[in-house]
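Chapter review: from sequence to fold.
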Amino acid sequence: MSGHLNELSQAGNSPTVNNISVPGEQYCNEMLPNKDILSSEQTMNCEGSGRVSLCAKDSSDREALHRQEETGLEEEKEMELIQLLLESAQTISEGKYDHAAGLVSKCEDLSCQMGNPTQRLGYYISDALKDRIEHESLGMLNNAAKPVLDFAFNIESESDKNEFCSLIAYYNRVLLYVKVIQFTSVQAIIDVVGNEKKIHVIDLGIRSGSHWTVLMEYLAHRSVSSSLHTLELLRITAVGMNAEELRKTGKRLHDLAKSYAIPLSYNMVEIASIEEIKEGLFTVKSGEELAVYAPVVLRSLLYDPVLMDNVLSVIKKLRPRIIVNVEIEAQHNSPSFANRFSEVLSHYMAYFDLLDVTLPDRIDLKRVKLEEIITASHIRNIIVYEGKERSVRHVRTDEWRCLIIKAGFREKGFSFQAMYQARLLLGEHASGEYYTLEADGHAIIVKWKGTPLFAISAWDGIK
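The token string follows.
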């Protein structure tokens, strides 16, 4: 499937084709022109080399027809799975848990962890629906809670931390949209503060910090221009949930800065959740021009408008010249479980299709782990839980716009350079043809085969 919930084409009514290696004489004669006036030489060709040629063509046609029939059957099964998933969710929302359990069981039969995108999505959604039924009918989950491996959650197991960090590094390396988002975000920051003497960047979810390579490269090239101020300081304040990983990131950035002869100051802010951001954690010194980068971290505050206002207020008081906010462009915050579920199905159908194109080896264990540990945990959180337990919440750009403007920020546009370079990056990769970058007001929407996946917006914090 292409990633959309369009109606699948139905297989034609072609008769069953048997595999025939060599056609009979009658079949051979019927396929040749002017069969009534064949010479003895032509007859020999028909019986000999001509027969082989016709057989090869016939075999090729039959194989193509067989593949077409198989494709039709696969699409029928995909549509059946989608319909069953939607019916399961609707039945759960009506409180008919026994009936829903039976439907989910059928979904499991049509799903496969290493199948096509629809089968893999069905595999993880079926698992989440089973937990939802258990959660609703028993009021608890018998199995241990599966944490969302995201910034908003602390990971206690050292092995889980290492696996998560390894997956994130792999994720950032192979997925093109990550590069596009990071490059566009950093370019927007360069456009505003890139020529200042003292630059301070607060990264609210730094992880490996590899995206700041773009900024350092720019600052290194800028130093050769006599028309610009000499860079006196680049300060990066890194926010994260794991002190050891923050230290490793700091070491990498210091080594990189040294190679570019850039004066770098690196500060760490360790918090278990974005909710813990408060005044006093950050210091902006005199003469520093501040930029804030928020990569898919503010969403965990959507369950509580007061917390959202508090965090945005803290950022506003720092008086940043620019804030870049990246969020998933989807509506997964509906109070209606059935409505939320249909949005999840549509959005993640496109995402699993993206993964299938980018990582076509369906038994690639890294890809399986990426889907299982990161994507599936998000799907499960959205489907299983309500209230504060449902920490993975996505809303569309218009809702983010209302929230951020209310907090006192002014939306900024992106430069021609940022858009041009992002499209150039897409053009350099085979999968780039399936992406589009579209405007929503001043925001940029990253789409996969027409389905919105991510939104990038820029904001001015000085008013």
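Two observations follow directly from the output. DSSP finds 14 helices and nine strands in the chain. Residues 49-93 form the longest helix (45 residues).
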